[in-house]
Amino acid sequence: MSYFAAALARTGENWTGVEVDLDEVEDIEALTDLLRDLTGEAPGPALLMLEEDDEYVAIVRVDGGATGLAEPRVFLSDRRAVQGSDVAAMLWEEADPEDDEDDEDDEDEGTRPVVEPVGDTELLADLGTTGADLVDLCAEEGLLPADVLTTVCERAGCADVLEELREG
Predict the structure, then answer these.
(1) Which of 80, 135, 76 is nearest to 107 (CA)?
(2) 92-146 pLDDT tens trace
(3) For residue 156, what are the contacts with CB-CB under 8 A and spacing of at least 6?
(4) Rounded CA gap, 75 and 15, in Å?
(5) Which long-range contacts (CB under 8 A, 24 or more apart) does 145-153 make?
(6) Number of domains making up the chain
(7) Distance between the two ends of the chain, CA-based, in angstroms?
(8) Rounded to two decimals, what is the model's pTM?
(9) Could you tell me the residue range of the domain that residue 125 belongs to?
């Protein structure tokens, strides 16, 4: 599977970003450290924006700058990605280890919805995308994961940084 992952951080009035190779990130704690390093002493936020094979979107948010103690907040546009992607599994299982019980319940329920967003839907609310808007964007027919990331970044004011990273 191929993916695009960008770490974006607000440092005062501006945003900065780097492309991230998640194969080199051992766990969610290492990712959190990487995101906090981008903000320096600024309060952030720092965001990981990930899209994999046009299948799903993952967003991880860390607040608090270098000395921040807040736990990372994770959103996945489709929980089923955890079953087919090591990257999604690392992000989700590390962030929500109690989720294993839900997997067993889903198997008993039979069919599942087309899109099953999970996690903190409100992680971008203060950046212009409410939880309901985020879920709607992820479920909108014909909208690719890259389009979802572009839309939320436009609302947050960091779309230009994201596009520069995509263009390499």
Answers:
(1) 80
(2) 875 565 544 444 444 444 444 567 899 999 999 999 999 999 999 999 999 999 9
(3) 15, 47, 124, 127, 128, 129
(4) 21
(5) 145/51, 145/52, 145/54, 145/55, 145/56, 145/57, 145/77, 146/4, 146/51, 146/54, 148/51, 148/57, 148/77, 149/49, 149/51, 149/57, 152/49, 152/59, 152/124, 152/127, 152/128, 153/8, 153/49
(6) 1
(7) 19
(8) 0.87
(9) 3-167
